[in-house]
Amino acid sequence: MIAVVARVMWLGLLRDRGALMLAFVLPPLMFLVFAEVFSGAGDSDLEMRVAVFDEVGTPLTGRIADAIVELDGIVPVAAGSDSGTPSIERLEALVRQGQADAAVWVRAEPDGNLDADPPVVVIGDASRALAAAVVTGRVQRVLQSEFPSLGVARAASLIDALAGPYTEDQQEALDLALSELDPAALEDQDGDTSQDGLVAQRLLGGGREIDDGVSYYAGAVAILFLLFAAMQGAISLIDERNSGIVDRLVAGPGGYTVVVVGKGLFLTLQGLAQAALIFAVAWWLYGIDWLGHFGPWLVTAVLAAAVSAWLGLLLASMCSSRQQAQTASAFVVLILSAVGGSMMPRFLMPGWLRELGWFTPNAWVIESWHGIFWRGDGPAELATGWGVLGATALGAMLISVWLAHRLAREK
Amino acid sequence: MSRADNEPILEIESIAFAYRDKPVLREVNLDLAPGRILALLGPNGAGKSTLIRCICGRLQPDSGRVRVAGNNPLENAAARAATGLVPQQIALYSHLTVAENLAVFARLAGVARKAVDSAVAETVDVCDLGAVATRPAGRLSGGWQRRVNIGCAMSHSPRLLILDEPTVGIDPPAREEIEKLLTRLAGNGLAVLMTSHDLTQLETLADGVAFLSEGRIAATGTPSGLIREFFGARRDCRVSLADPPTRELAQRLGALGLASGDRDALHWAGLLDEQPAWKLQSALPAEAQVTEVRVRRPGLDSLWTRLYGRDPERAA
Lengths: 411, 316
Fold this sequence. Notes:
The complex is a heterodimer of chains A (411) and B (316). Chain A is of the alpha/beta class and 411 residues long. Chain A folds into two domains: 48-204, abc type-2 transporter like fold, CATH 3.40.1710; 214-408, no CATH class. Chain A has 17 helices and five strands. Chain A has a five-stranded mixed beta sheet with strand order 2-1-3-4-5, sandwiched between helices. In chain A, helix 4 links the parallel strand 1 (48-54) and strand 2 (74-77). The longest helix of chain A is centred in the middle third of the chain and has 30 residues, at 257-286. Chain A starts with a helix and ends with a helix. Chain B has two domains: 3-228, Rossmann fold, CATH 3.40.50.300; 235-297, Alpha-Beta Plaits (2-Layer Sandwich), CATH 3.30.70. In chain B, strand 8 (208-213) and strand 9 form a beta hairpin. The longest helix of chain B is centred in the middle third of the chain and has 16 residues, at 172-187. Chain B has a six-stranded mixed beta sheet with strand order 5-6-7-3-8-9. Chain B is elongated. At the A-B interface, helix 11 of A face helix 3 and strand 5 of B.
């Protein structure tokens, strides 16, 4: 008897394609996304987009810049703008706008002068401090392994300052040793942290009195739950179809289209309220300047809510049963959220997954809100994101309304 | 009633419809005047649902025309506004009260916002829903839900009410209440088109019936007129036996004009003239193990059996 019950369950699963996908396709897909992110997070496989600017232009600094660019796991980003030459401002802009995870600024030729500022500066964004730390570590490692004489020279200068000065013979011997130093001699040393003062790290946007990740996660969590709530709300469309309410309505003058549009309006308002609640908490407890950026936030929130609502309604319009819609919505929301950056920052993802993220509303919503609160982006910078979200919402709405019209008038 | 009141609210002229080249409706003609109740009958697949969809403006007939209140419901919102549809399912928002349901469907059917309250009050009154107006629809008994289901199709004061199996799944007292309601609505001038498998109910409720068979109107008229037309003075006779009959008994039953359709030949039926019918019991041999002899005037179920070659119970 127990086996009979198990067989009924098995047949139910086997004949429900949605449940089958949820049970056996979604888990490996989600694993793939997480594995791609976290298998690379602990070593040099973690891909970082880095802009390198050699301001000095000597043979040595050129070789340093080339060595950094050629490192495994570094994806070079052009440091110069389309029309101009590279500059420190351009580097900062690339990092702030998220086009580069970090930037390396070679501002002086390394020498033994301990009083001089570190010749290499890694510029990162405080909201992605992990990326800056990873790049800093890699730069330090390449300097130690490829240019060991630089560190030793600075160490010798330190000894000279503390216990020196060196005699002429000692200085000659030191110079000779430095010139003949074999890079392999220091290759095996752990180079994640450098005591030689060659590399400095500068984080942009730091120093604000808020948790640097809050603006990112407020957006990431908001769009995740907007999508979940909209998908659940949209399923009422199927209930109404199955209960005969739709039959009743399509026989009337308004037809079914008004019902679909009405639901779209409600789900948009519901999403707006959800987003407002999350950002109100972020403002109250974490000090996000919500009210100071309320206008751009509101536009983004309306678009995020609209895109969630209409994607939910589109999915419900395409499903024939509540069970099918629930399965499909869980599938879609989890995949969109994982790839789009709602579950982990996209800069941790490999390049192909990052690019794939641009096909999700999550990435555009998160990027827009993050830009507003972190970089202070205005309408000009946000226009592309708003355009993509608006076009997606409009497209989903038009298809949903068309499907509703087709259901009502079976010509 | 004025002359205009007697003009058909629903006119169907020679409509035909085919689905993927398979004819579903063929040359269907029907009229329905205000104050009349017309029952559309037929087994599954006869074309009832397709015909209702054409009347509601959801399907464009391949030929012929449908007019509701003088307009094509497919193109004209006023024609659709003149129609109220009661689906077979309980098409209500279960979490809303009865009054809220009435208001929602009134608005969706085009009643102006300011007129909604009075429309709800009128529907509550006409459909006698006062006792449950403030209760959530999902918590009502099956009979009340059926009445509210009808009320929601009435909240915009349609001129044509279409009901799909309005009494399915409810007990006899509740069914009686629905009958009374429909009779009252028709008495107020509403044209009622309904489908039902409850043929006994329709004999008293419907002014007219139309039997659909393979997309055609196989018979139409008043219930009593059709029964008279098809059966005259003959009686519907049935004999049930406790054991399968001997060859002699079977021959005797056949000679009386009865036939058996079941494998064990326990049930025999046939239409007999009035005199032989009343003498049926005495005509049976004494040794026959008869459990029931029934003689009655034919009804719509007899007509159904005659038209479709099977009992109505097997129609669904």
